Amino acid sequence: MLSLVFASAGPGAKYNLMPDNTKGVDIMIALDISGSMVNSYDFLPKNRLSVSKDLLRAFIQKRIYDRIGIVVFAGAAYLQSPLSSDRTALDELIEDTSNEDIEEQGTAIGDALVLSTYRLKNSEAKSKVIILLTDGVSNTGKLDPETAAYTSKTLGIKVYCVGIGKEEGQYEVNYESLQKISSDTSGKFFRAESPEVLGEVLNEIDRLEVVELPSKPLEIQETKFPTFIFIVFLFLFLNLILKIFPLQEKL
């Protein structure tokens, strides 16, 4: 009966299986949806905003281990999504984003930065990143970009600024300001003068931001259930044989 108890308990050796480390980053995307992103035609057949949305959607689907949030801005900045791992919801939010979502006109880069920074301030991720996509000069808002960038730097947040559009376009882009924001926060500045270059920029950011996060070991118990069942049945069989053919003591 003792063997039967052991068999039902499933005794055996325990092993710790160490899975592959996952890779994860907390990312806030700050997307300029001002009028210039829609009214510029250097990204034909689509406008700058449509191209940015398409490429961001593809970027998000590749970052399967990350949490991603979205801030949209024009003359003011608004939270579109907090940090989330729901790829479907994020994809739908970006797809539905329009320059009509914000009434205030202008380009409030500082406000977009500080709002994105605020959403990352309590993050425990090893890497915290803001990806800022804009085609304009910061000309409105409650906070200037330099002060906002200092706040990001203080919290250990890197800012990747992407200046969208051609320098000789109808809308001015302050590349120097964007470059300083990235430099001050240990990020990197990119110029995207075509849809192809913008795609390459997001691919490079994808390669730059890889962080290994330790995973808990998976405990696996190798049971010896079949062995103990065999012993139990062998014991019962021998016991039955002895009852049918009891051993005779020699006189």
From TrEMBL:
SUPFAM superfamilies, sorted: vWA-like
Q: What Pfam families has UniProt attached to this entry?
A: VWA
Gene3D superfamilies (alphabetical): von Willebrand factor, type A domain
Where would one find the signal peptide in this protein? none
Please give the PROSITE patterns that the UniProt record associates with this protein: VWFA
Residue intervals of the VWFA domain: 26-205
For this protein, the record's InterPro entries field holds: UPF0353/GerABKA_families, vWA_BatA_type, VWF_A, vWFA_dom_sf
Bilayer-crossing regions: 225-245
What keywords does the record list, in alphabetical order?
Cell membrane, Membrane, Transmembrane, Transmembrane helix
Instruction: Report the protein name in the record.
Output: von Willebrand factor A
Look up and give the organism this protein is from: Leptospira ellinghausenii
